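haha ok so turns out i had the wrong file open the whole time. this is the CORRECT one, sorry everyone. sequence first:
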Amino acid sequence: MDRLGIVVPCYNEEEVFPISAPVLRGVLDDLVAKGKISADSFVLFVNDGSKDNTWDLIEKEHEKYPTQIFGVKLAGNVGHQYALTAGLITAKDFCDVTVSIDADLQDDVKVIEEMIDKFHDGCDIVYGVRSERKTDTFFKRTTAQAFYKLMAGMGVKTVYNHADYRLMSRRAVEQFSQYGETNLFIRGIVPLLGYKTDCVYYQRLERAAGESKYPLSKMLALAFNGISSFSIKPISMILGAGVVMLFIALAVAIYSIVQYFLGHVEPGWTSLMLSIWFIGGMQLISIGLVGQYIGKVYIEVKHRPRYNIEKVLSDETKEN
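then structure:
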């Protein structure tokens, strides 16, 4: 029987934790009763430097259910992608298969059983895909759809309407752990692993409690990180724009020569200033975009640790 580890990144989730912990334990109990996972399966909560009582709640829950509730406390706030990575890499040493899900329970836990079934059928990766986003605001729904279309347009291989709700086998997580890049975009890395995959579909639910920890600024940062980490199309677009500008300049030069010979030329300060500002602006945008790529190379070559684990709670924890 396979041992399941449900990985849950948490940042300031004290409001939703008392709801999500029992629900996820109930999922384990149900799957164990149906004989689909082993009785020693667990939920691993990853505390991403929360400023509230999230870690205290995780510790108390672990004391009540030491074989079902595990915890990882990161030494500081490193962000959702790093926290999720820390949880996956930690969990793989304890289990055969992992399922990652957010603490807000907007991703329907009922399809975890379907994920496990597909895993038993030979899939190493199963994506949880939102069939619709009725619970999202118009702005959130529109920006999310634009995000996935932008990723596709830039050549980044992602699964449409899939966030970070997925099943991964141990060997898939092992392979994922070999990707040592600092600028993490897990949704772009997982499709590169190459193992057998499938999808399950569900309706996105209302947040169980608390507020979203992913405002517009973080969504934009994630989008840019995904594009700049997996695509060189922006640089190609600059090259294309340069070629277009070259042809425009050529046309303007021909026009200017013709006008010169026709005697219609008058020195124009306005046109000169407009040209200088336009070309200067294009240069600054181009240099800034290329600079972003150079900055990422600079960060990558440092090979700094992506996270530091302060404490781990599991059924193998020993008192010193």
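The chain has two domains: 4-211+306-313, 233-300.
again sry for the mixup
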